[in-house]
Design brief:
Elements lengths: L1 H8 L6 H14 L4 E3 L1 H12 L4 E5 L6 H11 L6 E5 L6 H7 L3 E5 L9 H23 L4 E3 L29 E8 L1 H4 L14 E4 L3 E2 H4 L8 H16 L14
Parallel strand pairs: 1-7, 2-5, 2-6, 3-4, 3-5
Antiparallel strand pairs: 6-7, 6-8
Length: about 250
């Protein structure tokens, strides 16, 4: 079964108890999740069901972002998403609990500097395994979800994306990008709180499924500058889905 193959490749699969508990907590905190661009979501769903690989690219403003994406995808019957999950999430009990409520691939984020030679070796091993698992997820038709900013934006505005994330776009020649814009989750689960709070409905806007080959037209995607350009073009798609006050560094690009 593909579930066993993904697990063997390095995907930490959702734990049933924590997944159910996370869903209940999310629906308590944000009783309704607004979705714009549902037609784009269903078009992407049909492509995923045909096995077309999709990298889901979203802004990151709250620990509620992953659960919200998971809930929206379940509502619209998309294949189960798999998230790239930074090891930093294991440092606090609640974020560790939330991470166990989704399918995740552990990665060593660039924002976490290795302290020792042993840590540097571990980073290399973790990220090599993450690359293998990510490629398998894409080939299996599951959406692979990335937050290219690397960490939550404390201002809720878009920050500069890490151009190294473009490597996930280049793992399969037929990969498409599905851009998502998320807002209000910074109110549902503020960065300075240990638990979410009730009373605000999260909002998600879904862009058009776009082939990476189209996004990268005219640039050398193997070069460092080309990968940055590819990432900038992708983040512009995300910025275009967000209210103006959330667009941050991509407001005028």
């Amino acid at each position: 079964m593909i579930e066993k193959e993904l697990r063997d490749a390095g995907v930490d699969q959702q734990r049933r108890t924590s997944g159910a508990a996370m869903d209940l907590l999310l629906h308590w905190a944000t009783p309704e999740i607004g979705v714009r661009g549902s037609g784009n979501l269903m078009e992407a769903r049909d492509l995923m069901r045909e096995g077309v690989p999709h990298l889901v690219v979203a802004n990151h403003i709250s620990n509620a972002d992953g659960p919200v994406i998971k809930d929206v995808f379940a509502t619209y019957q998309l294949p189960d998403p798999v998230f790239l999950v930074g090891l930093k999430l294991n440092q606090q009990w609640f974020t560790r609990f939330m991470a166990s409520g989704v399918n995740g691939i552990p990665v060593w984020p660039d924002t976490l500097e290795p302290a020792t030679e042993s840590d540097r070796d571990k980073k290399s091993q973790v990220n090599a395994r993450a690359a293998q698992a990510s490629k398998m997820v894409l080939e299996a038709g599951h959406p692979l979800v990335v937050f290219p900013e690397g960490t939550r934006s404390r201002s809720a505005q878009l920050k500069e994306a890490n151009s190294k994330v473009s490597r996930y776009m280049l793992m399969h020649p037929e990969t498409r990008v599905l851009p998502l814009g998320i807002w209000n989750t910074e109110i549902v689960f503020p960065v300075d709180r240990a638990l979410p709070k009730r009373g605000t409905n999260a909002q998600v806007a879904v862009g058009k499924s776009t082939p990476v080959s189209l996004l990268g037209a005219g640039i050398d995607m193997e070069s460092t500058s080309g990968q940055k350009e590819l990432m900038d073009r992708t983040m512009k798609l995300v910025a275009g889905l967000l209210p103006a006050e959330y667009r941050g560094v991509y407001s005028n690009r």
